[in-house]
Protein backbone atom coordinates (compact mmCIF):
# COMPACT_ATOMS: atom_id res chain seq x y z
CA UNK A 1 0.00 0.00 0.00
CA UNK A 2 1.24 3.48 -0.82
CA UNK A 3 0.89 5.81 2.16
CA UNK A 4 1.69 9.45 2.65
CA UNK A 5 4.74 10.21 4.80
CA UNK A 6 2.48 10.98 7.74
CA UNK A 7 0.68 7.66 7.43
CA UNK A 8 3.88 5.77 6.70
CA UNK A 9 5.43 6.84 9.93
CA UNK A 10 2.49 5.79 12.06
CA UNK A 11 0.78 2.85 10.37
CA UNK A 12 1.77 -0.70 11.28
CA UNK A 13 0.49 -2.52 8.23
CA UNK A 14 2.70 -5.50 7.37
CA UNK A 15 0.66 -7.25 4.70
CA UNK A 16 2.98 -8.67 2.06
CA UNK A 17 0.49 -7.62 -0.60
CA UNK A 18 -3.17 -6.74 -0.76
CA UNK A 19 -5.56 -9.34 -2.07
CA UNK A 20 -8.49 -7.88 -3.97
CA UNK A 21 -11.66 -8.72 -5.97
CA UNK A 22 -12.85 -12.12 -7.17
CA UNK A 23 -15.98 -13.85 -8.32
CA UNK A 24 -17.34 -17.16 -6.98
CA UNK A 25 -18.97 -18.92 -4.09
CA UNK A 26 -17.03 -20.31 -1.12
CA UNK A 27 -15.70 -23.83 -1.38
CA UNK A 28 -15.08 -26.44 1.25
CA UNK A 29 -11.67 -26.53 2.93
CA UNK A 30 -9.17 -28.98 1.48
CA UNK A 31 -6.75 -30.28 4.12
CA UNK A 32 -4.04 -32.92 4.02
CA UNK A 33 -4.16 -35.82 6.45
CA UNK A 34 -1.01 -34.56 8.13
CA UNK A 35 -2.42 -31.15 8.90
CA UNK A 36 -6.15 -31.73 9.28
CA UNK A 37 -6.05 -32.43 13.01
CA UNK A 38 -4.14 -29.36 14.09
CA UNK A 39 -4.61 -26.45 11.71
CA UNK A 40 -6.73 -23.53 12.80
CA UNK A 41 -8.67 -20.52 11.59
CA UNK A 42 -8.28 -17.03 12.94
CA UNK A 43 -11.03 -15.22 14.83
CA UNK A 44 -11.78 -11.96 13.05
CA UNK A 45 -14.72 -11.23 15.35
CA UNK A 46 -12.15 -9.80 17.75
CA UNK A 47 -11.83 -6.97 15.24
CA UNK A 48 -15.55 -6.57 14.47
CA UNK A 49 -18.43 -8.74 15.63
CA UNK A 50 -19.79 -8.97 12.09
CA UNK A 51 -19.77 -7.30 8.68
CA UNK A 52 -22.47 -4.83 9.73
CA UNK A 53 -20.30 -3.53 12.58
CA UNK A 54 -17.44 -3.09 10.11
CA UNK A 55 -19.66 -1.11 7.75
CA UNK A 56 -20.91 1.07 10.58
CA UNK A 57 -17.34 1.89 11.55
CA UNK A 58 -16.42 2.66 7.94
CA UNK A 59 -19.23 5.20 7.73
CA UNK A 60 -18.31 6.65 11.12
CA UNK A 61 -14.70 7.16 10.01
CA UNK A 62 -15.81 8.82 6.79
CA UNK A 63 -17.92 11.22 8.84
CA UNK A 64 -14.71 12.40 10.52
CA UNK A 65 -12.95 13.35 7.29
CA UNK A 66 -14.38 16.91 7.13
CA UNK A 67 -12.46 17.60 10.35
CA UNK A 68 -9.23 16.78 8.50
CA UNK A 69 -10.03 19.26 5.75
CA UNK A 70 -10.98 21.88 8.35
CA UNK A 71 -7.56 21.81 9.99
CA UNK A 72 -5.79 22.80 6.75
CA UNK A 73 -3.84 26.01 7.30
CA UNK A 74 -3.88 25.68 11.10
CA UNK A 75 -0.90 23.41 11.81
CA UNK A 76 1.62 26.22 12.00
CA UNK A 77 -0.43 28.44 14.34
CA UNK A 78 1.23 27.00 17.42
CA UNK A 79 2.29 23.88 19.28
CA UNK A 80 -1.27 23.18 20.44
CA UNK A 81 -2.65 23.47 16.92
CA UNK A 82 0.00 21.11 15.58
CA UNK A 83 -0.71 18.64 18.38
CA UNK A 84 -4.45 18.72 17.74
CA UNK A 85 -3.95 18.01 14.07
CA UNK A 86 -1.44 15.21 14.64
CA UNK A 87 -3.63 13.59 17.29
CA UNK A 88 -6.68 13.68 15.01
CA UNK A 89 -4.77 12.00 12.17
CA UNK A 90 -3.25 9.41 14.48
CA UNK A 91 -6.62 8.46 15.94
CA UNK A 92 -8.12 8.01 12.48
CA UNK A 93 -5.14 6.00 11.24
CA UNK A 94 -5.52 3.70 14.23
CA UNK A 95 -9.15 3.06 13.35
CA UNK A 96 -8.41 2.76 9.63
CA UNK A 97 -5.69 0.16 10.19
CA UNK A 98 -8.10 -2.01 12.15
CA UNK A 99 -10.82 -1.49 9.55
CA UNK A 100 -8.60 -2.50 6.65
CA UNK A 101 -7.16 -5.45 8.56
CA UNK A 102 -10.62 -6.99 8.81
CA UNK A 103 -11.61 -6.39 5.19
CA UNK A 104 -8.32 -7.54 3.65
CA UNK A 105 -8.03 -10.68 5.78
CA UNK A 106 -11.66 -11.61 5.23
CA UNK A 107 -10.97 -11.37 1.50
CA UNK A 108 -7.80 -13.46 1.81
CA UNK A 109 -9.66 -16.36 3.41
CA UNK A 110 -11.20 -17.08 0.04
CA UNK A 111 -10.46 -14.91 -2.98
CA UNK A 112 -13.51 -16.40 -4.74
CA UNK A 113 -16.10 -14.73 -2.49
CA UNK A 114 -17.31 -11.61 -4.27
CA UNK A 115 -18.81 -9.85 -1.21
CA UNK A 116 -15.57 -10.08 0.72
CA UNK A 117 -13.54 -8.80 -2.22
CA UNK A 118 -15.91 -5.85 -2.60
CA UNK A 119 -15.51 -5.03 1.10
CA UNK A 120 -11.74 -5.17 0.74
CA UNK A 121 -11.96 -2.65 -2.08
CA UNK A 122 -14.01 -0.37 0.18
CA UNK A 123 -11.32 -0.72 2.83
CA UNK A 124 -8.67 0.38 0.34
CA UNK A 125 -10.84 3.21 -0.94
CA UNK A 126 -11.34 4.74 2.47
CA UNK A 127 -7.60 4.61 3.13
CA UNK A 128 -7.06 6.40 -0.17
CA UNK A 129 -9.71 8.94 0.76
CA UNK A 130 -7.88 9.54 4.01
CA UNK A 131 -4.71 10.08 1.99
CA UNK A 132 -6.49 12.65 -0.13
CA UNK A 133 -7.93 14.42 2.92
CA UNK A 134 -4.47 14.71 4.52
CA UNK A 135 -2.50 15.34 1.34
CA UNK A 136 -1.81 18.93 2.42
CA UNK A 137 -0.07 17.93 5.65
CA UNK A 138 3.44 17.22 4.37
CA UNK A 139 3.60 20.49 2.43
CA UNK A 140 2.17 22.47 5.33
CA UNK A 141 4.58 21.01 7.89
CA UNK A 142 7.50 21.53 5.50
CA UNK A 143 6.44 25.17 5.04
CA UNK A 144 6.44 25.73 8.82
CA UNK A 145 10.15 24.98 8.76
CA UNK A 146 12.47 22.82 10.82
CA UNK A 147 13.36 25.34 13.51
CA UNK A 148 9.75 26.26 14.24
CA UNK A 149 8.56 22.63 14.27
CA UNK A 150 11.38 21.62 16.61
CA UNK A 151 10.44 24.56 18.82
CA UNK A 152 6.86 23.31 18.98
CA UNK A 153 8.11 19.82 19.95
CA UNK A 154 10.27 21.28 22.72
CA UNK A 155 7.40 23.38 24.03
CA UNK A 156 4.65 20.73 23.94
CA UNK A 157 5.37 17.31 25.58
CA UNK A 158 2.37 15.80 23.78
CA UNK A 159 4.21 16.12 20.47
CA UNK A 160 6.96 13.72 21.61
CA UNK A 161 5.10 10.70 20.22
CA UNK A 162 4.83 12.50 16.86
CA UNK A 163 8.48 13.57 16.72
CA UNK A 164 9.65 10.80 14.37
CA UNK A 165 6.77 11.44 11.98
CA UNK A 166 7.44 15.17 11.90
CA UNK A 167 11.17 14.68 11.41
CA UNK A 168 10.46 12.33 8.52
CA UNK A 169 8.24 14.93 6.85
CA UNK A 170 10.91 17.59 7.28
CA UNK A 171 13.60 15.29 5.93
CA UNK A 172 11.56 14.61 2.80
CA UNK A 173 10.57 18.24 2.30
CA UNK A 174 12.62 18.61 -0.89
CA UNK A 175 10.47 15.88 -2.47
CA UNK A 176 7.20 17.29 -1.19
CA UNK A 177 5.08 19.13 -3.76
CA UNK A 178 2.59 21.95 -3.39
CA UNK A 179 -0.70 21.18 -1.61
CA UNK A 180 -2.56 21.07 -4.94
CA UNK A 181 0.03 18.73 -6.48
CA UNK A 182 0.02 16.52 -3.39
CA UNK A 183 -3.78 16.34 -3.56
CA UNK A 184 -3.56 15.30 -7.20
CA UNK A 185 -1.06 12.52 -6.47
CA UNK A 186 -3.16 11.34 -3.55
CA UNK A 187 -6.24 11.21 -5.78
CA UNK A 188 -4.29 9.10 -8.27
CA UNK A 189 -3.12 6.58 -5.66
CA UNK A 190 -6.10 4.26 -6.06
CA UNK A 191 -5.58 4.12 -9.81
CA UNK A 192 -1.87 3.42 -9.34
CA UNK A 193 -2.70 0.49 -7.06
CA UNK A 194 -4.80 -1.23 -9.70
CA UNK A 195 -1.99 -3.30 -11.31
CA UNK A 196 -1.31 -5.14 -8.06
CA UNK A 197 -5.00 -5.73 -7.50
CA UNK A 198 -5.50 -7.03 -11.04
CA UNK A 199 -2.48 -9.31 -10.68
CA UNK A 200 -3.77 -10.77 -7.40
CA UNK A 201 -7.20 -11.45 -8.88
CA UNK A 202 -5.81 -13.00 -12.03
CA UNK A 203 -3.25 -15.29 -10.40
CA UNK A 204 -5.21 -16.33 -7.30
CA UNK A 205 -8.69 -16.73 -8.71
CA UNK A 206 -8.85 -16.75 -12.49
CA UNK A 207 -5.86 -18.55 -14.05
CA UNK A 208 -6.99 -21.87 -15.58
CA UNK A 209 -4.86 -24.31 -13.63
CA UNK A 210 -4.05 -27.64 -15.31
CA UNK A 211 -5.02 -31.02 -13.95
CA UNK A 212 -2.43 -33.78 -13.77
CA UNK A 213 -2.32 -37.26 -12.29
CA UNK A 214 0.34 -38.00 -9.71
CA UNK A 215 0.52 -41.67 -8.72
CA UNK A 216 -3.03 -42.14 -9.96
CA UNK A 217 -4.49 -39.17 -8.05
CA UNK A 218 -5.80 -36.18 -9.97
CA UNK A 219 -4.32 -32.89 -8.81
CA UNK A 220 -5.43 -29.37 -9.74
CA UNK A 221 -1.99 -27.81 -10.11
CA UNK A 222 -2.67 -24.35 -8.67
CA UNK A 223 -0.06 -22.37 -6.71
CA UNK A 224 -0.67 -24.30 -3.51
CA UNK A 225 -0.40 -27.70 -5.15
CA UNK A 226 2.63 -26.63 -7.17
CA UNK A 227 4.32 -25.74 -3.87
CA UNK A 228 3.33 -29.08 -2.40
CA UNK A 229 4.52 -31.23 -5.34
CA UNK A 230 7.59 -29.44 -6.72
CA UNK A 231 9.73 -31.16 -4.08
CA UNK A 232 8.53 -34.68 -4.95
CA UNK A 233 11.34 -37.25 -4.56
CA UNK A 234 10.59 -38.71 -8.00
CA UNK A 235 12.44 -36.68 -10.70
CA UNK A 236 9.80 -37.67 -13.26
CA UNK A 237 7.04 -36.21 -11.09
CA UNK A 238 9.02 -32.98 -10.57
CA UNK A 239 9.48 -32.64 -14.32
CA UNK A 240 5.78 -33.38 -14.87
CA UNK A 241 4.82 -30.69 -12.34
CA UNK A 242 7.10 -28.05 -13.87
CA UNK A 243 6.08 -28.95 -17.42
CA UNK A 244 2.40 -28.49 -16.51
CA UNK A 245 2.63 -25.48 -14.19
CA UNK A 246 4.86 -22.95 -15.95
CA UNK A 247 3.11 -22.97 -19.35
CA UNK A 248 0.05 -21.59 -17.53
CA UNK A 249 2.00 -18.43 -16.69
CA UNK A 250 3.69 -18.44 -20.10
CA UNK A 251 0.29 -18.40 -21.82
CA UNK A 252 -0.47 -15.16 -19.97
CA UNK A 253 2.98 -13.63 -20.45
CA UNK A 254 1.66 -10.71 -22.51
CA UNK A 255 -1.17 -9.94 -20.09
CA UNK A 256 0.85 -10.21 -16.88
CA UNK A 257 3.64 -8.29 -18.60
CA UNK A 258 1.25 -5.45 -19.34
CA UNK A 259 0.01 -5.49 -15.75
CA UNK A 260 3.53 -5.34 -14.31
CA UNK A 261 4.58 -2.69 -16.84
CA UNK A 262 1.70 -0.54 -15.58
CA UNK A 263 2.96 -1.01 -12.03
CA UNK A 264 6.50 -0.02 -13.07
CA UNK A 265 5.33 3.06 -14.95
CA UNK A 266 3.27 4.17 -11.97
CA UNK A 267 6.31 3.91 -9.70
CA UNK A 268 8.54 5.78 -12.15
CA UNK A 269 5.85 8.44 -12.55
CA UNK A 270 5.81 9.02 -8.79
CA UNK A 271 9.61 9.14 -8.61
CA UNK A 272 9.80 11.74 -11.39
CA UNK A 273 6.95 13.78 -9.96
CA UNK A 274 8.77 13.95 -6.63
CA UNK A 275 12.10 14.76 -8.28
CA UNK A 276 13.96 11.61 -7.24
CA UNK A 277 16.86 10.53 -9.45
CA UNK A 278 15.47 6.99 -9.65
CA UNK A 279 12.75 4.69 -8.39
CA UNK A 280 15.11 2.91 -6.03
CA UNK A 281 16.20 6.26 -4.56
CA UNK A 282 12.55 7.05 -3.81
CA UNK A 283 12.00 3.65 -2.20
CA UNK A 284 15.06 4.00 0.01
CA UNK A 285 14.22 7.57 0.99
CA UNK A 286 10.95 6.42 2.52
CA UNK A 287 12.82 5.10 5.57
CA UNK A 288 16.09 7.00 5.09
CA UNK A 289 18.06 3.89 4.09
CA UNK A 290 21.32 4.51 2.22
CA UNK A 291 21.25 3.35 -1.40
CA UNK A 292 24.58 1.71 -0.60
CA UNK A 293 22.67 -1.00 1.26
CA UNK A 294 20.82 -2.12 -1.89
CA UNK A 295 23.80 -1.81 -4.19
CA UNK A 296 26.21 -3.52 -1.78
CA UNK A 297 23.79 -6.43 -1.39
CA UNK A 298 23.64 -7.02 -5.16
CA UNK A 299 27.41 -6.66 -5.46
CA UNK A 300 28.14 -9.11 -2.64
CA UNK A 301 25.53 -11.63 -3.83
CA UNK A 302 27.28 -11.72 -7.20
CA UNK A 303 30.65 -12.04 -5.49
CA UNK A 304 29.27 -14.99 -3.54
CA UNK A 305 28.00 -16.91 -6.57
CA UNK A 306 30.89 -19.44 -6.38
CA UNK A 307 29.50 -20.47 -2.98
CA UNK A 308 25.98 -20.79 -4.42
CA UNK A 309 27.35 -22.87 -7.31
CA UNK A 310 29.24 -25.04 -4.83
CA UNK A 311 25.97 -25.71 -3.04
CA UNK A 312 24.06 -26.42 -6.24
CA UNK A 313 26.78 -28.83 -7.40
CA UNK A 314 26.69 -30.55 -4.00
CA UNK A 315 22.93 -30.94 -4.38
CA UNK A 316 23.37 -32.63 -7.75
CA UNK A 317 25.96 -35.01 -6.30
CA UNK A 318 23.79 -35.97 -3.33
CA UNK A 319 20.70 -36.44 -5.52
CA UNK A 320 22.66 -38.49 -8.06
CA UNK A 321 21.83 -36.17 -10.94
CA UNK A 322 24.05 -36.13 -13.99
CA UNK A 323 22.60 -32.78 -14.96
CA UNK A 324 20.42 -30.87 -12.53
CA UNK A 325 17.53 -28.87 -13.95
CA UNK A 326 15.50 -26.07 -12.42
CA UNK A 327 12.84 -28.62 -11.55
CA UNK A 328 15.32 -30.18 -9.11
CA UNK A 329 15.78 -27.06 -6.97
CA UNK A 330 13.24 -27.88 -4.28
CA UNK A 331 13.68 -31.59 -3.61
CA UNK A 332 15.20 -32.20 -0.15
CA UNK A 333 18.70 -33.65 -0.02
CA UNK A 334 17.63 -36.03 2.71
CA UNK A 335 14.39 -37.62 3.75
CA UNK A 336 12.74 -35.94 6.73
CA UNK A 337 11.95 -38.06 9.77
CA UNK A 338 8.27 -37.51 9.13
CA UNK A 339 5.54 -34.91 9.09
CA UNK A 340 4.65 -32.61 11.94
CA UNK A 341 1.26 -31.60 13.24
CA UNK A 342 0.91 -27.91 13.90
CA UNK A 343 1.05 -28.58 17.65
CA UNK A 344 4.36 -30.43 17.16
CA UNK A 345 5.67 -27.55 15.04
CA UNK A 346 4.80 -25.10 17.80
CA UNK A 347 6.58 -27.20 20.43
CA UNK A 348 9.65 -27.51 18.22
CA UNK A 349 9.66 -23.75 17.63
CA UNK A 350 9.48 -23.02 21.37
CA UNK A 351 12.40 -25.36 22.03
CA UNK A 352 14.48 -23.81 19.26
CA UNK A 353 13.86 -20.26 20.47
CA UNK A 354 14.94 -20.81 24.08
CA UNK A 355 18.10 -18.73 23.51
CA UNK A 356 15.79 -15.70 23.14
CA UNK A 357 14.81 -16.05 26.81
CA UNK A 358 11.84 -17.04 28.94
CA UNK A 359 9.89 -13.84 28.40
CA UNK A 360 9.88 -14.43 24.66
CA UNK A 361 8.99 -18.14 24.76
CA UNK A 362 6.36 -17.68 27.46
CA UNK A 363 4.58 -14.98 25.48
CA UNK A 364 4.88 -16.98 22.27
CA UNK A 365 3.56 -20.16 23.92
CA UNK A 366 0.53 -18.28 25.22
CA UNK A 367 -0.11 -16.73 21.79
CA UNK A 368 -0.06 -20.15 20.12
CA UNK A 369 -3.16 -21.04 22.13
CA UNK A 370 -5.15 -18.11 20.72
CA UNK A 371 -6.94 -17.97 17.37
CA UNK A 372 -4.50 -15.56 15.79
CA UNK A 373 -3.63 -17.64 12.75
CA UNK A 374 -5.39 -19.02 9.67
CA UNK A 375 -3.36 -22.10 8.76
CA UNK A 376 -6.04 -24.35 7.30
CA UNK A 377 -5.57 -25.32 3.63
CA UNK A 378 -8.52 -24.04 1.65
CA UNK A 379 -9.39 -23.64 -2.01
CA UNK A 380 -9.31 -19.99 -3.07
CA UNK A 381 -7.25 -18.93 -0.05
CA UNK A 382 -4.62 -16.29 -0.76
CA UNK A 383 -1.31 -17.97 -1.49
CA UNK A 384 1.83 -17.39 0.56
CA UNK A 385 2.14 -16.34 4.17
CA UNK A 386 2.08 -13.07 6.07
CA UNK A 387 1.61 -11.41 9.43
CA UNK A 388 -0.76 -8.46 9.78
CA UNK A 389 0.11 -6.38 12.82
CA UNK A 390 -2.07 -3.38 12.00
CA UNK A 391 -4.73 -3.85 14.68
CA UNK A 392 -2.77 -2.16 17.49
CA UNK A 393 -5.59 -2.55 20.01
CA UNK A 394 -6.15 -6.27 19.35
CA UNK A 395 -3.22 -8.54 18.42
CA UNK A 396 -1.29 -9.68 15.35
CA UNK A 397 -2.92 -12.00 12.81
CA UNK A 398 -1.10 -14.58 10.70
CA UNK A 399 -1.92 -16.37 7.47
CA UNK A 400 -0.22 -19.45 6.04
CA UNK A 401 -1.20 -22.85 4.71
CA UNK A 402 0.13 -25.53 7.05
CA UNK A 403 0.72 -28.86 5.29
CA UNK A 404 2.86 -30.74 7.81
CA UNK A 405 6.29 -30.67 6.15
CA UNK A 406 9.45 -29.06 7.54
CA UNK A 407 8.98 -26.03 5.33
CA UNK A 408 5.66 -25.41 7.08
CA UNK A 409 7.41 -25.65 10.44
CA UNK A 410 9.99 -23.11 9.30
CA UNK A 411 7.31 -20.81 7.88
CA UNK A 412 5.42 -21.00 11.16
CA UNK A 413 8.55 -19.98 13.09
CA UNK A 414 9.13 -17.17 10.57
CA UNK A 415 5.65 -15.66 10.72
CA UNK A 416 5.50 -15.87 14.50
CA UNK A 417 8.80 -13.99 14.54
CA UNK A 418 6.91 -11.15 12.87
CA UNK A 419 4.04 -11.48 15.32
CA UNK A 420 6.30 -11.34 18.38
CA UNK A 421 8.10 -8.35 16.90
CA UNK A 422 4.72 -6.62 16.80
CA UNK A 423 3.99 -7.67 20.39
CA UNK A 424 7.27 -6.11 21.53
CA UNK A 425 7.01 -2.99 19.38
CA UNK A 426 3.51 -2.38 20.72
CA UNK A 427 5.17 -1.34 23.98
CA UNK A 428 5.62 1.91 22.04
CA UNK A 429 2.79 4.42 21.71
CA UNK A 430 0.67 3.73 18.64
CA UNK A 431 2.41 6.52 16.73
CA UNK A 432 5.82 4.78 16.92
CA UNK A 433 4.70 1.16 17.18
CA UNK A 434 5.12 0.36 13.51
CA UNK A 435 8.45 -0.68 12.03
CA UNK A 436 10.13 -0.67 8.66
CA UNK A 437 10.49 -3.80 6.55
CA UNK A 438 14.23 -3.16 6.76
CA UNK A 439 14.01 -4.47 10.33
CA UNK A 440 10.81 -6.52 10.08
CA UNK A 441 12.43 -9.51 8.39
CA UNK A 442 15.26 -9.77 10.91
CA UNK A 443 13.35 -11.41 13.79
CA UNK A 444 11.42 -13.66 11.42
CA UNK A 445 14.52 -15.01 9.66
CA UNK A 446 16.43 -15.15 12.96
CA UNK A 447 13.73 -17.53 14.18
CA UNK A 448 14.24 -19.67 11.08
CA UNK A 449 17.99 -19.84 11.64
CA UNK A 450 17.62 -20.65 15.34
CA UNK A 451 15.22 -23.43 14.34
CA UNK A 452 17.74 -24.71 11.80
CA UNK A 453 20.56 -24.65 14.36
CA UNK A 454 18.32 -26.49 16.84
CA UNK A 455 17.53 -29.17 14.27
CA UNK A 456 21.23 -29.71 13.55
CA UNK A 457 22.25 -29.77 17.22
CA UNK A 458 19.47 -32.16 18.25
CA UNK A 459 19.51 -34.54 15.31
CA UNK A 460 19.38 -38.10 16.64
CA UNK A 461 20.85 -39.76 13.57
CA UNK A 462 23.30 -39.01 10.78
CA UNK A 463 20.43 -38.80 8.32
CA UNK A 464 18.54 -36.33 10.50
CA UNK A 465 21.62 -34.12 10.74
CA UNK A 466 22.10 -34.28 6.98
CA UNK A 467 18.48 -33.24 6.53
CA UNK A 468 18.82 -30.38 9.02
CA UNK A 469 22.00 -29.05 7.40
CA UNK A 470 20.49 -29.30 3.95
CA UNK A 471 17.41 -27.37 5.09
CA UNK A 472 19.61 -24.65 6.56
CA UNK A 473 21.54 -24.39 3.30
CA UNK A 474 18.34 -24.23 1.31
CA UNK A 475 17.04 -21.46 3.53
CA UNK A 476 20.23 -19.45 2.95
CA UNK A 477 20.00 -20.04 -0.80
CA UNK A 478 16.36 -19.07 -1.04
CA UNK A 479 16.41 -16.10 1.30
CA UNK A 480 19.78 -14.59 0.41
CA UNK A 481 20.70 -15.50 -3.16
CA UNK A 482 17.19 -15.88 -4.58
CA UNK A 483 15.95 -12.62 -3.06
CA UNK A 484 19.11 -10.82 -4.20
CA UNK A 485 18.38 -12.11 -7.71
CA UNK A 486 14.85 -10.72 -7.41
CA UNK A 487 16.34 -7.40 -6.28
CA UNK A 488 18.59 -7.30 -9.31
CA UNK A 489 15.59 -8.02 -11.56
CA UNK A 490 13.67 -5.13 -10.02
CA UNK A 491 16.61 -2.79 -10.59
CA UNK A 492 16.80 -3.81 -14.24
CA UNK A 493 13.03 -3.60 -14.83
CA UNK A 494 12.66 -0.15 -13.27
CA UNK A 495 15.81 1.11 -15.02
CA UNK A 496 14.35 0.02 -18.39
CA UNK A 497 11.25 2.15 -17.80
CA UNK A 498 13.37 5.06 -16.60
CA UNK A 499 15.35 4.89 -19.85
CA UNK A 500 12.14 4.93 -21.89
CA UNK A 501 12.57 1.37 -23.16
CA UNK A 502 9.48 -0.69 -24.11
CA UNK A 503 8.32 -3.14 -21.44
CA UNK A 504 6.69 -6.38 -22.53
CA UNK A 505 6.15 -9.73 -20.89
CA UNK A 506 8.61 -11.26 -23.31
CA UNK A 507 11.22 -8.63 -22.51
CA UNK A 508 10.76 -9.13 -18.77
CA UNK A 509 11.17 -12.88 -19.24
CA UNK A 510 14.45 -12.29 -21.07
CA UNK A 511 15.81 -10.10 -18.26
CA UNK A 512 14.77 -12.69 -15.68
CA UNK A 513 16.09 -15.64 -17.68
CA UNK A 514 19.53 -14.06 -18.00
CA UNK A 515 19.66 -13.58 -14.23
CA UNK A 516 18.33 -17.07 -13.56
CA UNK A 517 21.05 -18.59 -15.72
CA UNK A 518 23.85 -16.51 -14.19
CA UNK A 519 22.81 -17.16 -10.60
CA UNK A 520 22.42 -20.90 -11.23
CA UNK A 521 25.59 -21.37 -13.27
CA UNK A 522 23.86 -22.50 -16.45
CA UNK A 523 26.89 -21.66 -18.64
CA UNK A 524 29.14 -23.62 -16.27
CA UNK A 525 26.90 -26.69 -16.34
CA UNK A 526 25.85 -26.31 -12.70
CA UNK A 527 22.07 -26.19 -13.26
CA UNK A 528 20.37 -26.35 -16.65
CA UNK A 529 17.81 -23.54 -16.97
CA UNK A 530 15.25 -24.09 -19.73
CA UNK A 531 14.02 -20.93 -21.44
CA UNK A 532 10.43 -21.32 -20.24
CA UNK A 533 11.53 -20.65 -16.65
CA UNK A 534 12.19 -17.03 -17.58
CA UNK A 535 8.46 -16.55 -16.93
CA UNK A 536 8.99 -17.12 -13.19
CA UNK A 537 8.98 -13.35 -12.60
CA UNK A 538 5.22 -13.50 -13.23
CA UNK A 539 4.86 -15.84 -10.23
CA UNK A 540 6.30 -13.38 -7.69
CA UNK A 541 3.59 -11.17 -6.09
CA UNK A 542 6.15 -9.23 -4.07
CA UNK A 543 7.26 -7.39 -7.23
CA UNK A 544 4.13 -5.28 -6.83
CA UNK A 545 5.68 -3.82 -3.69
CA UNK A 546 8.56 -2.06 -5.38
CA UNK A 547 12.03 -2.71 -3.96
CA UNK A 548 10.66 -4.77 -1.09
CA UNK A 549 12.22 -8.19 -1.59
CA UNK A 550 15.86 -7.10 -1.22
CA UNK A 551 15.16 -6.68 2.48
CA UNK A 552 14.74 -10.44 2.88
CA UNK A 553 18.37 -10.79 1.82
CA UNK A 554 19.66 -7.95 4.00
CA UNK A 555 17.60 -9.20 6.93
CA UNK A 556 18.76 -12.80 6.75
CA UNK A 557 22.32 -11.49 6.79
CA UNK A 558 21.48 -9.51 9.93
CA UNK A 559 19.57 -12.49 11.34
CA UNK A 560 22.58 -14.75 10.87
CA UNK A 561 24.60 -12.28 12.93
CA UNK A 562 22.06 -12.20 15.76
CA UNK A 563 21.22 -15.92 15.68
CA UNK A 564 24.85 -16.94 15.94
CA UNK A 565 25.66 -14.58 18.81
CA UNK A 566 22.44 -15.12 20.78
CA UNK A 567 22.59 -18.85 20.14
CA UNK A 568 26.09 -18.86 21.67
CA UNK A 569 24.78 -17.16 24.81
CA UNK A 570 25.76 -13.53 24.18
CA UNK A 571 23.32 -11.84 26.56
CA UNK A 572 24.55 -8.32 25.73
CA UNK A 573 23.79 -8.93 22.07
CA UNK A 574 20.38 -10.32 23.03
CA UNK A 575 19.64 -7.16 25.00
CA UNK A 576 20.57 -4.99 21.99
CA UNK A 577 18.42 -7.22 19.77
CA UNK A 578 15.33 -6.77 21.93
CA UNK A 579 16.04 -3.06 22.27
CA UNK A 580 15.85 -2.90 18.48
CA UNK A 581 12.55 -4.82 18.41
CA UNK A 582 11.02 -2.68 21.16
CA UNK A 583 12.12 0.54 19.45
CA UNK A 584 9.43 0.15 16.79
CA UNK A 585 9.47 3.22 14.58
CA UNK A 586 10.88 5.58 17.21
CA UNK A 587 13.94 6.14 14.97
CA UNK A 588 15.01 5.43 11.39
CA UNK A 589 15.70 1.72 10.82
CA UNK A 590 19.28 1.97 9.57
CA UNK A 591 20.58 3.67 12.75
CA UNK A 592 18.61 1.16 14.85
CA UNK A 593 20.42 -1.78 13.23
CA UNK A 594 23.76 -0.01 13.59
CA UNK A 595 23.03 0.55 17.29
CA UNK A 596 22.36 -3.17 17.58
CA UNK A 597 25.84 -3.86 16.21
CA UNK A 598 25.96 -4.23 12.41
CA UNK A 599 26.20 -2.07 9.29
CA UNK A 600 24.19 -3.37 6.35
CA UNK A 601 25.75 -0.82 3.99
CA UNK A 602 29.10 -2.58 4.37
CA UNK A 603 30.12 -5.87 2.70
CA UNK A 604 30.87 -7.71 5.94
CA UNK A 605 27.35 -8.92 6.94
CA UNK A 606 26.88 -10.51 3.51
CA UNK A 607 30.33 -12.07 3.51
CA UNK A 608 29.65 -13.47 6.96
CA UNK A 609 26.50 -15.13 5.67
CA UNK A 610 28.43 -16.64 2.75
CA UNK A 611 30.98 -17.96 5.25
CA UNK A 612 28.14 -19.49 7.30
CA UNK A 613 26.92 -21.24 4.16
CA UNK A 614 30.40 -22.61 3.43
CA UNK A 615 30.73 -23.88 7.01
CA UNK A 616 27.42 -25.71 6.72
CA UNK A 617 28.60 -27.31 3.47
CA UNK A 618 31.85 -28.36 5.13
CA UNK A 619 29.83 -30.13 7.83
CA UNK A 620 27.53 -31.71 5.29
CA UNK A 621 30.38 -32.98 3.11
CA UNK A 622 32.06 -34.49 6.17
CA UNK A 623 28.86 -36.33 7.09
CA UNK A 624 28.34 -37.54 3.54
CA UNK A 625 31.87 -38.90 3.44
CA UNK A 626 31.27 -41.01 6.56
CA UNK A 627 30.15 -44.59 6.17
CA UNK A 628 26.61 -45.32 7.27
From TrEMBL:
EC number of the protein: 3.4.24.-
Outline the extent of the Peptidase M3A/M3B catalytic domain.
230-607
Give the cofactors, semicolon-separated: Zn(2+)
Q: Name one Pfam family in it.
A: Peptidase_M3_N
Where does the record locate the signal sequence feature?
Answer: 1-24
Family per record: Belongs to the peptidase M3B family.
- PANTHER family, per this entry? PROTEASE M3 THIMET OLIGOPEPTIDASE-RELATED, SACCHAROLYSIN
Q: What does this protein do?
A: Has oligopeptidase activity and degrades a variety of small bioactive peptides.
- The identity of this protein, by name, is Oligopeptidase F
Tell me what organism the protein belongs to. Answer: Roseateles oligotrophus
Q: Which gene encodes it?
A: pepF
